[in-house]
Structures are given as C-alpha cells and as structure tokens.
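Protein Record: Sequence and Backbone Structure Tokens
======================================================
Tokens: labelled as protein backbone structure tokens, with as many entries as the chain has residues.
Question of interest: how does this chain fold, as expressed in backbone structure tokens?

___
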Amino acid sequence: ISGYSLVIQARDSGTPPLSSSVTVNVDISDVNDNSPVFTPANYTAVIQENKPVGTSILQLVVTDKDSFHNGPPFTFTILTGNEEEEFTLDPHGVLRSAVIFKHMVSTEYVLCVQAKDSGKPQQVSHTYIQVRVIEESIHKPTAIPLEIFIVTMEDDFPGGVIGKIHATDQDVYDVLTYTLKSEQKSLFKVNSHDGKIIALGGLDNGKYVLNVSVSDGRFQVPIDVVVHVEQLLQEMLHNTVTIRFENVSPEDFVGLHMHGFRRTLRNAVLSQKQDSLHIISIQPVAGSNQLDMLFAVQVHSGGFYKPAYLIQKLTNARRHLENVIRISAILEKNCSGLDCQEQHCEQSLSVDSHSLMTYSTARISFVCPRFYRNVRCMC
C-alpha cells in the first residue's frame, strides 16, 4: 500500500461539545529492497560468422518490483567473458557484435552480465549469456511464386491484406526479411517480417507485377508476385448464378480447384471464346460445410447471359463439372422455407465491397467482397 488518507477529529468536553477535523495523508516511501530480475534468468543466442560489426545479437529484458525511481534506468556491465572486447552492451540492454566473428576461431562465448538499478543504495543482479558462433548462410532462401486475384466493385476497393509470401531457408538460424521495390510502395506494402502483402485503397482495374525479394542477410532472391484486379459492374449482380459445392473449404477451393473448375465451367457455358466468365465471390454457407460461388458471364458484344440460360447449360454439363468437384446445388432463386411458387419468388443480391474476404494459400490468393442474398415471396 503506497499511502493512507486519515480523517482525525478533535472534540472538546464542553456543553455542547465542539469538534474540528483535519485530513492527514501518510505516504509510504519505497525502500530499494528488490534487485533487478532478468527474464529469462539466463540466455542463449547465436550469431552467424562474417556478420558486420554492430549486429544485434540479443535484447536483455529486466524488471524491478520497486517503485519507478528505484528501478530503471538500469546500468548494464559485462563482467567476464569479454576480455578481448568482442561484444558491446548498450544502455537499453542490447548486446551487439564489436568484431567480425569467425567460426574457425571460436564457436562459443560465455558472458556474465550485471544489471544495476537506480535506487540508493543500488541493487544488482547477474545473468549468463551463452553466444554460439555458427557458419554463415550457405543456402539461398526459396520462395513460392504467388498469384493474387482481387474482385472489387467499381472503384471501391478499401485495401487490406491480400496474400502472404511463403518462403523457407535450409539454414536453421536464418531470419528472412521481405522487401518491395520503392516505386511500388504507393500501391502496395510488404510486411518485412512475415511476408504479408497489403494493398492500399483505390486500386484500378488491371494487372500488377510486384518486385518483391526475400533475403537471409547474405542471399537475396526475387519472388514472382502477380496481382490481378477486376472491377465488377453493378449489372452483373442482376445476372448471377450460384453454384453450391459440397464438403470444401474456401482455401481448398482456391488452392486446389479454382483454376480447373474455371476452365471446365468456361467450356460448359460460354457460346464464344471471346465471352468473359466473372467469378464475383466465394463464400461459406453458414452452419454447413458447403461453399457458394457466385458468377456471371459477359457477352463479348455487350450485356450478360441470362441466369435461366446459364442454369440450363450448367444442368446439362453437371456430370462433367462434377469430375472436378462435387456440386450440391445450382441456384438462381433460393426460396427455401418460403411458402410460395417459384415464379413468385423474388431474389436480390447485395455486395458489401468494404467487407473483403481473403482466401490465401501458398501459391494463389483470392480476395472478394462479401455478398448477401435476400429472398421474399411475392404471392
């Protein structure tokens, strides 16, 4: 308890008795009776040979149970193990290299480090740091090319995470960093630590080839990242058909089936090669293991195929389509639970372009808006 607030009353013996009160604040001063605490108690770290002078090796973490003025800032000192001055320790507790290490010269160092707090009298504690010197990278990073498809409604892309680069390195202790060519940073960003790709708002329709690379500190490897942006027209929503798949997750559909199914679907429903198939969105069906894919087909000369025509084509080709993936249903209207005849069921679709869904795998990523299906009985 850091303090008490007491109300004290003085009362005399007269008739009637009179009294007066005063408040007394009692502050409890902290005594510096706790030593700094290292977390963890002892450390192990590695550094690759031939790293430049000043390379960060380790960040010490120290806490103190005393009040703030008896705790930090801490004073760090290397007591033993640094006779040749191979290491430096800055005021923030960061251990850095002071020489270029060679694996053939020495493979291990053990440092005893002291932390001293700011109290009076000062309290100290100690930790041991084992630093291993390992051979420099001998393997280049490997990265999987990534293709990203973004579907958005007419100039209304809000931006967000659109995919993730998957890279590995056979050198166990290598730390991979990702970079994007500077002139592309006005449209995209890449998280340097985990390889996530972020698109900024307002992307135009078209194809973007990103100049991304991954580095292990010695080797730098380019990564093929291609982004396709398709802006949908409002008219498409009036001519959509939904194919419902059975027992498939969005990620599995994107990674395993989308390319093959798109090709098979084009062959099944397109009258001319110049016509365009547009996958508007894919979305799990709530409370089930089913998946809806919303699509429309644009005629090369203008306009769109009518849903009834598409459904007829799909019905005739259903067996062929199911050679790629199992289909649960082909939906134009969805009047389940409504007591009305088919011709009296009205369906409307709405798309929330600011609620994006990103389905990402190692090789392909699909970003699309969330859609809502509203049905009502007109009878």
